[in-house]
DNA sequence: AGATTGCTTTGCTCTGGATCAAGTTACTTT
DNA sequence: AAAGTAACTTGATCCAGAGCAAAGCAATCT
């Protein structure tokens, strides 16, 4: 019964230069000719479905992936199966950069909702980047950004409490949606409470309780996967640990 | 009274090709000629002293640094001064990769003990790397390694308990010392208990207590900064959460 | 030598979140 | 529609590790 009748992406001949993600994943300063060269090595595949693996830890590293639509989660499965979620990847975000060093995928990547990805053979990308300085530059920037982002996460896990972590998480999503032209205050979560907790180093129950509490305090509205951020300012205060946090006591 | 009479490194004309760190920081597959080119852009400075800043968060990013001798700690000072230690860098390790993206240093770097560093102007390195494919490749690998390492830290902070974290930390140092030709089981800590705790997301007191407990259990000997790992095997068990942990109960 | 300062250790108490244990609600499948 | 299953919520309890306070020790200064 694969009569899914999904929109086939095969016939969509949108080159990189026309891709709506250009400003997110492509180097600024590439000439149209350069973009065509890059475009030529990018493979566009049929959409993947929830639960599919983009790759698994231990797989040979061949390609860098860029999310076009949908969401992908990356995680370290752990010897004993005690999965650690490493990230949730939205359209325009790259996946697989941690595999360059060893040539073996260091984490696994799983589709959270119907997703289309671009696939870029790394060897070709690398060759191309040595002939196009601005592409090389962009690659360095992307890798560097990833490092910076991971460092932010280290601070989150090392220093922030549960409230601050969830607030940060929601604000991060909010900002990323906004940059993609979606509402920063009204969106759907494509990951489960369990996955959020895992990502933030919290138990599912804690995440659930915090959602309830944030809602009771008028910071947001949640219903299942649907979130509406009502008071972003106060969420930002919580994020930076601005004392008082939720349950703002009336300061006399 | 700058009559420090420190060993001047100015007259040490050790080129990269002769540097003992070659296998750690230089690309495999660079021809001797390539190494000379790289060598030409590397600046070698006089040693820095405990407490000196290599750079501060917010500084303009100009150079990548490589530790030659000594130890450097990187950290995010945090708005409110609630420092988060991001890493301890031993000889052969690179610093500053997270600044490429924005051109502004994302974290600060401080010297923990008298340290010599090589300074590589990034713009020159970047240019050079586009003419030497194997150098470019090595740069990608180094950046990727950093990402992989940060991801490992995320798992450490997100999933491991205090014992597992300290064991991991000690084993990481042990391995890195070994690769540099030093004893893997007998070394000095150049960072304080406070800094270790901060790095591992633990309170100083917890770190101190764990050292005591590990010692009581015959895993290691500590005296101030001096550590001797006595039972590395058991430390590895603890690291991977191999149940029983310390206080191995007699299993009848 | 004695005093000052800054780590580090140790004991005691407290708490944020984990864990355990039921429910509850929403999808799927039949 | 009923039944099953997976995700989520909520309540109750517990505990690893934080925080506080007070020594203990080294290293430096006077």
Structural class of chain A: alpha+beta
Number of helices of chain A: 8
Could you give a short account of the major beta sheet of chain A? Answer: 6 strands, antiparallel
Oligomeric status: homodimer
Give me a quick take on this structure.
Two copies of one chain form a homodimer. The first copy, chain A, is α+β, with helices and mostly antiparallel strands and 252 residues long.
Model description:
The structure is a homodimer of 252-residue chains. The first copy, chain A, is of the alpha+beta class. In chain A, 39% of the residues lie in helices and 21% in strands. The first copy, chain A, is built from eight helices and nine strands. In chain A, the strands form two sheets. In chain A, strands 1, 2, 3, 4, 5 and 6 form a six-stranded antiparallel sheet that branches. In chain A, strands 7-9-8 form a three-stranded antiparallel sheet. In chain A, β3 (63-76) and β4 form a beta hairpin. In chain A, α3 crosses α4. The longest helix of chain A is centred in the middle third of the chain and has 27 residues, at 133-159. The first copy, chain A, is globular. At the A-B interface, α3, α4 and α6 of A face α3, α4 and α6 of B. The structure holds a DNA duplex (30 and 30 nucleotides).
